[in-house]
Amino acid sequence: MKNLLQIVSLVAAIATAFLFVGCASPNPQTAATPATAASSGSAVKAYPLDACLVTGEDLDGGPTTVYNGQEVKFCCSGCLDAFNREPERYMAGLQ
Predict the structure, then answer these.
(1) What is the pLDDT of residues 26-56, one digit of tens each?
(2) At CB < 8 A and 24+ separation, what contacts does 80-85 make?
């Protein structure tokens, strides 16, 4: 039981460190992955939130992408990377 608690604590510490390190420096570049970019001629829905979809932090000129016709904004490139790994998980926050 003690080992399980230590493992859980370690995983939590690593996850917390990733959030802070990944969001330490906002990337002002706009990015869109080819598979999720809106096709030409289709309307893109504006991003409805004032915060990063991944962490909830302020949007300080971080990257933006389009996923299935929906604009999505992030506080940093680390959050864009996290989104690209599991987009449906984070898109559920906009539903």
Answers:
(1) 444 444 444 444 445 579 999 999 999 999 9
(2) 80/27, 80/31, 81/22, 82/22, 82/54, 83/53, 83/54, 84/33
Per residue in 70-81, pLDDT (tens digit) is 999 999 999 999
DSSP character string of 7-50: HHHHHHHHHHHHHHHHTSS--------TTTSPPTTSPPBPP--S
Closest alpha carbon to 93 in 43, 65, 38, 56: 56
If DSSP codes are grouped into helix, strand and coil, which group holds residue 59? coil
Nearest to 71 by CA among 59, 85, 25: 59
Could you tell me how many residues make up the chain? 95
3-class SS at 76? coil
Please choose, from the candidates 84, 30, 25, the residue with its C-alpha nearest in 3D space to the C-alpha of residue 54. Answer: 84
* Cβ contact 43:23 at 8 Å: no
